[in-house]
Design a protein that fits this description.
Ferritin, 6 helices, about 75% helix, elongated, binds fe (iii) ion, binds magnesium ion
């Protein structure tokens, strides 16, 4: 860790590390939920869904990487065992027990909505007194907002198709 870089965060560093490790746990679970979803999804418009799910999986893994680097910069340690992901996560993991495309999309939309609320709360708590974390979490939030919209648009298209309106 850089000493001055941490000094400007001051006494808030420990709390920020905690918030970032919780988000880090969510990102790994989101990554796996998308990754396994892309393998097992079934039904109409499956190919479009697979492409979107795979892209989102890659984004979530990149978010985990961004968070890990910031945790280390602040003098913390990213969660070292998957068991902890379930204890720390804000949004948890929704098992895709039903692989039908609309079910998978709905589960992932709920996950994105939880992620959006979580990152918004982190931004509010961290505030501009830690501009590096603020900026990093804002970048991630921007992606999650895009993810939600992509999935809702796909679900809407699917709805039109199932009603025979194409
Ligand atoms: Fe993410
Ligand atoms: Fe996302
Ligand atoms: Mg997308």
């Amino acid at each position: 860790m850089g000493t001055r870089g941490r000094e400007i965060v001051g006494k808030n560093a420990e709390r920020t590390i905690e918030l970032l490790n919780k988000a880090f746990s969510d990102e790994w679970l989101a990554y796996y939920q998308y990754w396994i979803g892309s393998k097992i999804v079934a039904g109409p418009m499956k190919d479009a869904a697979i492409a979107e799910l795979m892209q989102h999986a890659a984004d979530e893994l990149r978010h985990a990487d961004m968070l890990a680097l910031r945790i280390i910069q602040l003098g913390g340690t990213p969660v070292t065992t998957p068991k902890r992901w379930f204890e720390l996560a804000n949004c948890g993991y929704a098992e895709p027990a039903d692989p039908f495309i609309s079910k998978i999309l709905e589960q992932n939309i709920a996950g994105e909505q939880c992620a959006i609320s979580t990152y918004h709360a982190i931004i509010e708590e961290v505030g501009i007194k830690d501009p590096v974390t603020y900026n990093l979490v804002s970048q991630i939030l921007t992606d999650e907002v895009e993810h939600e919209e992509d999935l809702q648009a796909l679900l809407e298209d699917l709805g039109f198709m199932l009603k025979g309106r194409v």
